[in-house]
Structure prediction request, 277 residues.
Amino acid sequence: MSERKPYRSDVSDEQWALIEPVITAWKAAHPSVSGHQGKYAMREIVNAIFYQGRTGVQWEYLPHDLPPIGAVYYYFGKWRDDGTSQKIHDLLRWHVREQKRRSADPSLVVLDTQSVRAAAGVPADTTGRDAAKKTPGRKRGLAVDVFGLVIAVIVLAASTHDNVAGTALLDKVAATTSGTVTKALVDQGFKKTVVDHGAGLGIDVEIVQRNPADQGFVPQEKRWVVEQTNGTLMLHRRLVRDYEHLPASSESRVHWAMTAVMSRRLTRTPASSGRWT
Prediction:
């Protein structure tokens, strides 16, 4: 890595030791036709992705001492499309769970959706208006385990009903965990369609009812972890709005954000905000 003043979002040596084996294996499987190893260090590419995710800067505003836009976007897109970014994320999630003396995949997940505004320039055919929350943009659906770790993420137009998001999330959960999940908790925004779809996958979907006496936001037991994860993701400014042209890029941003969070937790690397810990 070239000498430069480090950014607070840079991976530490310990974090890079967790991520580097996957990147090295990817490079070995994708050799250049000319045999050239590439001009830019892979660690710097990851640093640039972390920097953009944490600060939210536009591609054109990436600092000049990081690799150029073309190189960073090339690898971001490649790793998004072939599943490498998710593979890194999932390996770290398994590591965190095993550190907590849990099996690699959970038996229970919590589902939730969050509508976020889309930035100018995001294709209109991938966005919509959430009628309930009065939010134009996209809907981000998460399935998390009891520690708030992301098991599955899906990004749809905000006008999409929670039932559609819920069934798609359940499909991803079943595929990602190879059938270990037997229970899912959801809020009242999800309906019987999701319950029936879960039953077909062998997942008991429970709609957690809100106490009518509660005023304002009241955390619900077990379900609160997904709200905590949404809050953690909001510390990554690239996720405060949806800036991505492709919903798949939005999903990849969630994976990279959680990769940053989990790699810090695993290595006990100090974060740029005390709220991360």
